[in-house]
Write a structure and sequence with these properties.
Length: 177
């Protein structure tokens, strides 16, 4: 059997399948990133990458009510996540919380009246949260965007740092007589 006869014996359906498979595998990283990132991650990306915003307020980007946000950094163990959220073992298992197991990933957990209303793994490519372990309210979940080094994909690394609420200037406070 020579090469010509092998080529003629290949079904056109196989060629089509092979071409689609190769195109899919080529975009695997993009597909993975799309599936991995949640609605908030894409909203953050749109603001800081597409619109070049230098500051974001998460309450303006969320489509659900919440009163508490906890951000977990990369490699935070699941048991630590559950402990910090004050979840017992049963509550931890039912919450189905993913561990952020790669550099640049964050786990965002939003709660309303102590109950989890939204959780998602946030991709550092959309802006990497670098915050101290603390909870945030909708009023103080404001983050400044700091550009850093260029990543391997040619994009600029963007770090999101918490912007503490500014305290009023003591000289402008009026006291009642």
């Amino acid at each position: 059997m020579n090469v010509d006869s092998v080529i003629r014996s290949i079904s056109p359906r196989f060629v089509l399948f092979f071409a689609v498979a190769m195109l899919t595998l080529t975009g695997c990283g993009d597909i993975y990133r799309y599936v991995s990132s949640g609605e908030l991650g894409w909203a953050i990306k749109k603001e800081i990458r597409d619109r070049s915003r230098t500051e974001i307020t998460l309450s303006k980007l969320t489509l659900f009510p919440w009163d508490d946000l906890v951000i977990f950094s990369a490699y935070t163990p699941r048991m630590e996540i559950c402990k910090r959220l004050a979840l017992d073992e049963i509550g931890c298992n039912s919450a189905d919380l993913s561990e952020p197991m790669n550099d640049g990933l964050n786990l965002l957990v939003f709660r309303l009246n102590g109950k989890i209303v939204h959780r998602e793994i946030h991709l550092g490519e959309h802006g990497e949260f670098r915050v101290e372990e603390q909870s945030f309210t909708p009023q103080d979940a404001v983050f400044v965007v700091e550009p850093h080094a260029t990543l391997g994909n040619g994009k600029r690394q963007l770090i999101l740092r918490w912007k503490p609420p500014s305290s009023p200037n003591p000289s402008t406070i009026r006291h009642s007589p």
